[in-house]
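Pasting as-is:
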Amino acid sequence: MPERIAFTIETPAGPRTASLAYERRGSGEPLLLLHGIGHHWQAWEPVLDILATERDVVAVDLPGFGASDELPDGCPYDLSGVGRVLGAFCEAVGIERPHVAGNSLGGLLALELGREKLVRSVTALSPAGFWSEGERRYAFVTLRAMRGAARSMPVPVIDRLSRTSVGRATLTGSIYARPGRRSPEAVYAETLALRGATGFRQTLAAGGSVRFRDDVPSVPVTVAWGTRDRLLLPRQGVRAKHTIPGARLVRLPGCGHVPMSDDPALVARVILDGSR
């Protein structure tokens, strides 16, 4: 069962208490896993046990997503604000300078933690922040449409759709290249997570002006991109490599925007290799 921890964070309005839910498995060097916008820690379930054979894995629900509370008043959802929360979370659960792997929003946050020298290595899977303005608008329109659909559908309809391969493709085809590989239970749960994500609006608003333009010279960085990513197009990986020249750029053949279930073995190997 996932755990929950409350801890104090410093905000522009003074000390506040944050509360995040997380799943912890395995042993070895610490590895923090960060999901994308609208998702929850279970996005990592396809690779979690593989990673846990070699790492002390902590998969966290980001603020306002999954079972985690929204950020307290006075704490912004921008990169630096959420980065500080994650730094305080790591201290609270007793992991010092973990390796970190993130997907989409989580990949962008992972790079921010690397830029701030709070982690040992970074693996970013289709990270946000390397888009053109047109690509950003397209991604945001798609995300808002997914969120709107999840909120407008009655829960019994979501349940019925999740039980067929066509329905799973309808619900998650924008983020998975192989939505049929997700179980009905997983698709149902993640659609409800998107529907109930209390931090969605604030997180998307904070990301509107985000561009990741800095090198991350202090830690090893791996950037991996699915060749069938339809949300953040693979050419953005080339921009990431130009921005972070020392990064290892990896193609994920046949994978979509959330590649962990499209090819669990490949994604797990990329993360483990990147966190040596």
